[in-house]
Amino acid sequence: MTIAPNDAQRGASRLYRTMRDFVQSMDDTxxxxxxxxKEGIVHDMMSPVKQHELTVLRLRKRLxxxxxxxxxxxxxxxDVEDVPEGILRRPDVMVIAEAxxxxxxxxxxxxxxxxxxxxxxxNPDNDWIAKLRDYPLLGIPVYAVFDPRTGTGAVFTDxxxxxxxxxxxxxxxxxxxxxVTIADxxxxxxxxxxxxx
Length: 197
Description:
One of its GO terms (molecular function) is endonuclease activity. By secondary structure, the chain is α+β, with helices and mostly antiparallel strands. The chain has helices at 5-26, 50-66, 124-138; strands at 33-37, 40-44, 71-74, 80-82, 87-89, 93-97, 112-118, 143-147, 152-160, 167-175, 179-182, 185-188. It has a single domain, classed as tt1808, chain A. Strand 4 and strand 5 (87-89) form a beta hairpin. The radius of gyration is 17 Å and the shape is globular.
């Protein structure tokens, strides 16, 4: 049997809506965080630990100290969503204009200035592999990863087309203690907590 493109698109759309309904129904029921990637539902089963949450807090405060007042480093809901791509994500820190937060529903990922993730101990590949694939597909121009396991990170920029879809062309690695530039703003990374061995 041949599936016409419109049938395939409708089928993908139905599958995405089913996954989205499941994620919404599970969000307050099971521990951890649910997201939808190009590969399906992602469940980070571990509740965030103190080091993760303290890193989120310190990065948010440091970014907001150097950004203009109309730009915020948001650390909560709602998610960013691209229905046609079938992706629903919730970055740890979303750099976004306050005006783009108005209204109902999820955030349009193309309004984000940057997304910042702090890797979890339980599923670091979600940040280093899956989101590195999904975020340029969503049009998020800057993606920063902080890894408390190793005290290192990277900032990815310059989306360009590849045979496998949009990807970041530039990667700048850093170690904790160095200053790091995210979009137009440079912040220190000293005193960011590490996960215990």
